[in-house]
Amino acid sequence: MADSTREVWITGIGIVSCLGEGPDAHWQKLMQAHPDADTTTFAPFVVHPVAPINFDAQIPKKGDQRQMENWQRIGTYAAGLALDSASVKGNSALLSRMDMIVAAGGGERDLTVDSNILSGIRRAANPAAFLNERLMSDLRPTLFLAQLSNLLAGNISIVHGVTGSSRTFMGEESAGIDAVRIAHSRIGARQSDIALVGGSFNGERPDLLMLYEFAELALKHKYAAVWERGNATAGFALGSLGAFLVIEARDHAEKRGAKPLAKLTTVVSDRATRQPGTITETLSRLWDRLKAKIVAGHAAVLSGATGVKPATAEERKFLELHPDLAVRATGSYLGHGLEPQFAMNIALATAALGHGSLFPPCDATGLERPMAADLTQVVVTGVGHWRGEGLALIERIG
Amino acid sequence: MATGKDKSGRMRVVVTGLGVVTSLGAGKTENWAKLTAGESGIKTITRFPTDGLKTRIAGTIDYLPPQSSNAALTEAFAELAAEEAIAQSGLTRSGQFPGPLFLAVPPIEMEWPQRLEFGAKSGANDKVTYADMLRVSAGFPAYHRRFLLGSVADNLAEKVRHAGFPDFAVHGLRVRSNCDSARRGSNPAWRNRRGALHWN
């Protein structure tokens, strides 16, 4: 069910990105309206590297940190921030029945090992044997564990003690959308009372740049805001992100005296065939499922647009059907982080609702317009660069 | 029974279609016949060289046409098993598929043939780095599609749709690879593991 009779509240958010950590740091940077990106480290590719993190603050054991790759450290750290924000950190009775849904990508490659193999294999008498031998002897034994997609959830369990049910979804942006949708609907259906949901992504990875460069989707040479990416600059800048939400049933939150940050009213998702026009049609159909709740003049859209053609152009068409909604594409600031992008935008929506206002536009094309009115509702969009669409409605409480 | 609920008021869930593909063979009939005859599917690995590996046997599926990647092979298994399950379910192929698709698959990534291909394309003389490969990676969109984590589930969805569920992908489908590390309540546990032996 898209909607539940049981209200679902957001009671904790934990976010990490190039803008820093936590909602306040993000809000300050968004209000300054000066997006920044790294155009040199992976030149010609543009990326948004994660701000410096003191991992010890959320992952105290060095041994735990060593067993993780960066995407897992970022995620475990963000999960800890979310638990702190919800005031449930260390509450083992509660954490033992907290459900977890994680959207995860694949493991990071050992770039040195790959490079050594590619360099040496040309001189090998038996290339296949050479490859096997090098993989058997050069890969760190811990890498195997660090590469399992469901070990992000595993590490969160180990480090933070979240030990209710655990699910990991894979599949780029739509995995992130469905993680939130399913956590929300399970609480609505009384199959769960409280859940930790989100994901993480390390955008500073040449192996992933290669995957997206295959289809020429990785932003090159010059930074541009999402809506300004035309033919020469279509694509996304990979962005390192960690984003987790603690969501719980209203009755559960009230019983433990938790402060609600916002209400997660509706989460809907679909999969357009991606024939021309189908993204706009699909978003319109999803919109029909929440439009009755929208209060004109007080709602805005936080878009997860990537800057990729044709997905972003079709999302823009949908947004232009709703000129009364102020729009902001957070990818202009954060880059694109695939799996955690949707949860990140729900967290930023929660922060905006907390301030009761929207941050300034960052778009010379005119789609993003200033919004002066009191902000009470945010619709988050997720349009996968290749597949998957979703919308979430987040509302101010009280 | 008539209410569709159990004693605790939970929805009853029944299985209406099954499909299996294993090292013993494709389909329930062949698998059951071989299992009950005491046959093992474990055999010598022939799909890739095992020189220098400690393990040279596995439950390999070696009766399908060769595929261009592990991801493509995974997809071929999924397609066969899904076809058998849908056929047994008796769902008519004249309307929308009435539910979501959950698929458990191993993580998918670019594989060694591609790394070797782009290492060679890069023309790097001595040391081959990712920066070298990145210089020559543009213009291979089929590799992007193939090595997305969601690709197997997504392609399976397309194939089922083309097989006769015309609206399959419009409303009825959620494509997800799902790996659970715990089981709770009435939800199925899906497990997703990388094989102990894989071409890392």
Tell me what you see in this structure.
The complex is a heterodimer of chains A (398) and B (200). Chain A is α/β, with parallel strands linked by helices and 398 residues long. Chain A has two domains: 8-107 and 148-395, Peroxisomal Thiolase, Chain A, domain 1 (3-Layer(aba) Sandwich); 111-142. Chain A is built from 15 helices and 13 strands. The longest helix of chain A is centred in the middle third of the chain and has 17 residues, at 172-188. The mean pLDDT of chain A is 95. Chain B has 200 residues and is an alpha+beta fold. In chain B, 32% of the residues lie in helices and 8% in strands. Chain B is built from six helices and six strands; from the N terminus they run ββαββαβααααβ. Chain B has helices at 28-36, 70-89, 112-121, 130-135, 141-146, 151-162; strands at 21-22, 25-26, 43-44, 57-58, 101-103, 175-180. In chain B, the strands form three sheets. Chain B has a two-stranded antiparallel ribbon. A two-stranded antiparallel sheet of chain B has the order 3-4. In chain B, a hairpin with a 2-residue loop joins β1 (21-22) and β2. In chain B, α2 packs across α6. Chains A and B meet through α5, α6, α7, α8 and β5 of A and α3, α4, α5, α6 and β6 of B.
Short description:
Chain A has 15 helices and 13 strands. With 398 residues, chain A is of the alpha/beta class.
Please give the CATH architecture of the largest domain in chain A.
3-Layer(aba) Sandwich
| Secondary structural class of chain A | alpha/beta
Question: What is the residue-averaged pLDDT of chain A?
Answer: 95
Helix content of chain A: 25-40%
Could you report the average pLDDT of chain B, rounded to the nearest whole number? Answer: 80
Tell me, briefly, the overall form of chain A. Answer: globular
Helix content of chain B: 25-40%
At the first level of CATH, what is the class of the largest domain in chain A? Answer: Alpha Beta
Order of helices and strands of chain B: EEHEEHEHHHHE
Characterize the main sheet of chain A. Answer: 11 strands, mixed
Beta content of chain A comes to 15-25%
CATH superfamily of the largest domain in chain A: Thiolase/Chalcone synthase
- What is the ordering of alpha helices and beta strands of chain A? EEHEHHHEHHHHEHEHEEHEHEHEHHEE
N-to-C CA distance of chain B: 49 Å
Number of strands of chain A: 13
The Rg value of chain A, from CA coordinates, equals 21 Å
Strand content of chain B: 5-15%
Low-confidence stretches of chain B: 166-200
What is the terminal-to-terminal distance of chain A? Answer: 25 Å
